[in-house]
Each structure stands twice: as structure tokens, then as C-alpha cells.
Write the C-alpha cells for this entry.
Amino acid sequence: MLKHHLDGGVRKGALTQEQADAKLAAWIEEKAGKVDAKKDGLSKKQAEAKAKALKAETAANEKRANAAAEALKAAEAPEVVEEEVAEVAEEVVAEVAVEETTAVEEAPADEEASEETEA
């Protein structure tokens, strides 16, 4: 479009062809600079958005990993507690068995003593 206007100026004698070509080259260079600046700005914004998204994704992954680790710890903790409960239960059962055995041995002796006193 600009070339058409510059050619009109050359036809009217306002410019020479060399001047028109120089103005056209300067305009094309300026326009290319603006386009490149816009592309750089857009790519910079895109890179910033990508970095921000990556950071957010990394944070989400860390949260997910921490939650999974805590869930794993929570799952392991009941097993440890169950093992401890089982050990304590075995000890209690053994103590109760010993107490019952001693109680059974003492009970007949008590019954014999009470029968002797009644007689």
C-alpha cells in the first residue's frame, strides 16, 4: 500500500525513485522490527506462563507426594500398633493362663480346708 503512494509521489515529481525506495526500505525495516518485538513479547509471555504452570504443577506434585507418603505412614502405623497389640495380648493370655493355673491349684486346697472345718 505504501509503495503505491510512494510511486504516486514519484509520478507527480515530489520524490525521486531512489528516495521512494529508501523510504519504502526504512518502512519495511521498521515494520519488521515491530513485528519481531511483538513476537518476542508474546514468546516471553508464553515462556513466563509455561514457567508459572510448571511451578504450580511441581507444587501440586509435591503436595500429592507428601499426601501419599503420609498415607503410607498411616497405613504402616496400624500394622506396627497391631503387632504391639498382638504381643501384649499374647503376654496377657499367658499371664491369665498362669493365674488360672495357680487359681485352680489353690482352689482345691481351699475347698479341702473348708471341708475340714465343717466336719
About this structure: The helical segments are 2-12, 17-118. The longest helix spans residues 17-118. Residues 27 and 33 are 10 Å apart (CA to CA). The chain has two helices and no strands.
